[in-house]
Design a protein that fits this description.
The chain has 224 residues and is mainly alpha-helical. The chain is built from eight helices and five strands; from the N terminus they run αααβαββααααββ. The protein starts with 11 loop residues before the first helix and ends with a strand.
Length: 224
C-alpha cells in the first residue's frame, strides 16, 4: 500500500461534468468519496468491490458502480480468468479520468522522498552540518571555498588577476612620467645682464595713494 495523501484535487469542470450531473446526488457523492479513497491509499484510481461500502449506504453498491461504467466514469477491470461470470467479491473498477487530475502513486512517493531529503538537509544546515548542502546554494560552503587555497574559485582568480593588471599599469605609467622628466634638460641659470622682470600689476602702488603708518606715540602718519 502506498503512502497516504491527505488531499484530493478536482476542478469545477468535474462537478459540472454532464456524465455526473445526470446521476442522482447520492451517486455523485459516492463518486467523489471513491475519488478521495483512491487518492488516500494510492490505488491509481482502482476501486475494489470490498471498498464500495465505504462510499454509500445503498443495499446494492455494485449496481451504482455499473451505473458509473454505463456513464463512462468508471471502467470495469475485473479479471475473470477465463470464466464466463465474475463473482461480485472479485469485481474491481478504475476511475477513468483519475490520472488526468490526480498524481500517480509513484509520483507521490517520489515527491515524499525528495521532501524528506530536503527536510533532512535543512535540519543539518541549521545545526551547522553542511555535508548534504549544495555548494552553489550554501553560503557557508562558498565562504570555505573562497578561503581554501586548494579550491580557488574562478571569481577569486579573476579578482587577483585584475588587481595585478591594474598595479602593473600604474607602475608603468609612473615609470613613463619619471623617464620624461629625466629626459627634459634643466633650465639655465639667469644671466647677470638679463633684465629684471617688472613686478606684477597687483604689487604696483599708485604714487598718489597715501599709506598710513603709526608713530611711537600712537599718532597716525600718511606718506605719499
Amino acid at each position: 500500500m502506498s503512502q497516504k495523501r491527505m488531499w484530493t484535487k478536482y476542478e469545477l469542470k468535474t462537478i459540472r461534468d454532464p456524465r455526473l450531473t445526470k446521476l442522482p446526488r447520492s451517486q455523485r457523492l459516492m463518486y467523489f468519496e471513491a475519488l478521495a479513497h483512491a487518492n488516500e491509499y494510492g490505488t491509481d484510481g482502482v476501486i475494489e468491490y470490498s471498498d464500495l461500502r465505504l462510499f454509500t449506504d445503498a443495499s446494492k453498491p455494485a449496481m451504482i458502480a455499473q451505473a458509473f461504467v454505463a456513464a463512462g466514469l468508471w471502467s470495469d477491470v475485473s479479471q475473470n480468468d477465463g470464466q464466463k461470470s465474475v463473482r461480485c467479491q472479485s469485481k474491481r473498477w478504475r476511475i477513468v479520468d483519475f490520472l488526468d487530475e490526480q498524481l500517480s502513486a509513484e509520483e507521490v512517493q517520489t515527491r515524499a522522498k525528495n521532501s524528506a531529503i530536503t527536510t533532512e538537509r535543512n535540519r543539518r544546515h541549521k545545526a551547522g552540518d553542511h555535508s548534504k548542502c549544495d555548494p552553489k546554494r550554501c553560503w557557508s560552503l562558498q565562504n570555505v571555498t573562497r578561503h581554501d587555497p586548494g579550491h580557488v574559485t574562478t571569481d577569486v582568480i579573476s579578482d587577483v588577476t585584475l588587481h595585478d593588471t591594474k598595479r602593473h599599469e600604474t607602475k608603468r605609467s609612473e615609470s613613463g612620467v619619471r623617464s620624461e622628466v629625466e629626459k627634459k634638460p634643466p633650465a639655465p641659470p639667469p644671466s647677470a645682464d638679463a633684465p629684471v622682470a617688472a613686478p606684477p600689476e597687483s604689487e604696483k602702488r599708485s604714487p598718489s595713494t597715501p599709506v598710513a603708518t603709526r608713530t611711537a606715540d600712537g599718532r597716525e602718519r600718511f606718506e605719499f
